[in-house]
Structure to design on (557 residues):
């Protein structure tokens, strides 16, 4: 049996013209700015002028990821197509892929099989240039900061206290720590510096949390780049950089309209990493989708302890959003990996390993239902090697928590394979819920971090290094202690140790560094060995990507 690759499937479908997709979404032509025939920008006036009531917000999250795969984005897209199949008006809202993972390990991030957004090559590569604009705005601020110091340093910036880093949208470990400004006096002031990947930058977080262009500019102005010799923060506003940065982002901030393989409107916009940043697409994209459709299907990155926690505790808090239901995506294979089975042995029935790995799923479900008070359903991406006995076991354990399990085959069957999931999501979303957050914003920085570690991760608390304690003390004195917290940790475990699979309990996360993203409006706590600039693997996906003489890209998947 010849199984088609994702890119072959994507290329086999003739997409609808983007103006037809806009019509399906209810977007008038005057709000559409075409980027060719199959992608477009949506003018911000579309959201401002739309007086429709908001639709229902459906969040798709997942168990803790493993190399076996879960299929969260694929499920999100397939669910949207399934919702249309049962007669619902729906728009899917996704993040844009980063070039780092595309050329690194992951390959692409536009869904898979028969549940994809297209044109997948464009979406996975330069798309409409949003990430390049974000990188340019970031590096303009960095250049203006260093130029201010070179030109006399009127703001008395302490060069040793610079917190703002340059960025590039590529995995490049060589740039994690650099020394720049070397050479002659006219080449700048020599100092230690470094690069973050663009999706981990504060500009990306600001971009995704801004309500409109005015809010974007105000947030950019609040970004803290350094401290002066008196210990007071120096901002982008102090450098008079926010206007030029906003000018670079004025088109990027407009959400991107594309489509699924089945012609469902899809808004793909913004893309912060969920293990480092808050891991959700832009507020503007989500709010636009809610105004256009009765149902907005969106996702948050990695497992529910990362993306969903930040979606619910940060994005919903900032934007005033209230989800109607949550989908937790799982696979039998991944649960068996959490139970200790090697990837090479996942095709054999193993209920003992499944029982051992199931607590990972059950903890995520408990968090959604009992901490956040939201209705949930489990979507199991079915593989041919999954046995009835294994599936029955998952159904039985989830029912103990009052959660239904629905089998999904959207990868193989598209929207048709997600109809049962769509019907359950509609049922859940019609129920009232008492959505709440996992911590009180009035609590201290330390208390909020501990609340997440205990309530969401299942640990016993948090250990703070001496540096972290001093940083918290300083940020509290500066009045930033009421902001929500964004914990950066490994995506592979509830703990900050990627080797602890399943649902570990007897652990504390170690907070090594605490800083404020004043523009984004949250505190960042870095734990474990988390890094803001990934590296390429031994055999990067880039080695298999090519373009033929006709300009057709191959090897993306």
């Amino acid at each position: 049996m010849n199984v088609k690759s994702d890119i072959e499937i994507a290329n086999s479908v003739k997409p609808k013209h983007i103006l037809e997709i806009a019509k399906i979404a209810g977007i008038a032509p005057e709000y559409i700015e075409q980027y060719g025939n199959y992608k477009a920008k949506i003018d911000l006036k579309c959201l401002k002028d739309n007086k429709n009531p908001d639709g229902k917000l459906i969040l798709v999250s997942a168990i803790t990821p493993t190399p076996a795969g879960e299929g969260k984005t694929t499920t999100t897209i397939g669910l949207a197509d399934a919702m249309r199949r049962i007669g619902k008006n729906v728009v899917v809202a996704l993040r844009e892929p980063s070039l780092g993972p595309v050329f690194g390990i992951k390959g692409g991030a536009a869904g898979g099989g028969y549940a994809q957004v297209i044109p997948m090559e464009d979406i996975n590569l330069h798309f409409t240039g949003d990430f390049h604009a974000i990188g340019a705005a970031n590096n303009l601020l960095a250049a203006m900061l260093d130029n201010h110091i070179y030109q006399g340093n009127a703001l008395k910036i302490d060069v040793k206290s610079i917190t703002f880093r340059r960025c590039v949208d590529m995995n490049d470990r060589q740039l994690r720590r650099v020394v720049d400004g070397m050479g002659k006096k006219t080449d700048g002031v020599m100092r230690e510096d470094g690069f973050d990947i663009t999706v981990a930058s504060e500009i990306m977080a600001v971009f995704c949390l801004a309500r409109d262009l005015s809010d974007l500019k105000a947030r950019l102005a609040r970004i803290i780049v350094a401290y002066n010799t008196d210990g007071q923060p120096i901002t982008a506003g102090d450098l008079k950089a926010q206007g030029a940065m906003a000018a670079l982002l004025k088109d990027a901030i407009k959400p991107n309209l594309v489509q699924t393989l089945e012609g469902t409107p899809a808004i793909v916009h913004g893309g912060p990493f969920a293990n480092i940043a808050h891991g959700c697409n832009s507020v503007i994209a989500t709010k636009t989708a809610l105004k256009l459709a009765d149902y907005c299907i969106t996702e948050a990155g990695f497992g529910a302890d990362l993306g969903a926690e930040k979606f619910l505790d940060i994005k919903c808090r900032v934007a005033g959003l209230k989800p109607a239901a949550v989908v937790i995506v799982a696979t039998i294979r991944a649960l068996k990996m959490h139970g200790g089975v090697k990837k090479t042995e996942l095709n054999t029935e193993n209920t003992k390993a499944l029982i051992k790995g199931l607590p990972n799923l059950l903890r995520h479900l408990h968090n959604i239902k009992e901490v956040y008070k939201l209705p949930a359903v489990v979507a199991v991406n079915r593989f041919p090697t999954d046995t009835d006995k294994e599936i029955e076991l998952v159904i039985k354990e989830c029912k103990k928590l009052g959660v239904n399990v629905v089998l999904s085959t959207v990868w193989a069957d598209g929207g048709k394979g997600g109809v049962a999931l769509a019907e359950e999501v509609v049922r859940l979303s019609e129920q009232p819920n008492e959505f709440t957050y996992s911590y009180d914003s009035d609590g201290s920085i330390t208390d909020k971090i501990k609340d997440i570690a205990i309530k969401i991760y299942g640990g016993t608390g948090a250990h703070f290094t001496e540096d972290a304690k001093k940083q918290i003390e300083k940020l509290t004195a500066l009045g930033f202690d009421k902001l929500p917290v964004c914990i950066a940790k490994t995506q592979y475990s509830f703990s900050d140790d990627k080797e602890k699979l399943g649902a570990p309990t007897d652990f504390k996360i170690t907070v090594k560094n605490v800083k404020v993203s004043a523009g984004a409006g949250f505190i960042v706590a870095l734990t474990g060995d988390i890094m803001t600039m990934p590296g390429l693997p031994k055999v990067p996906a880039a080695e298999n990507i090519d373009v033929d003489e006709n300009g057709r890209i191959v090897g993306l998947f």
Summary: The chain has a mean pLDDT of 95. The two ends are 18 Å apart (CA to CA).
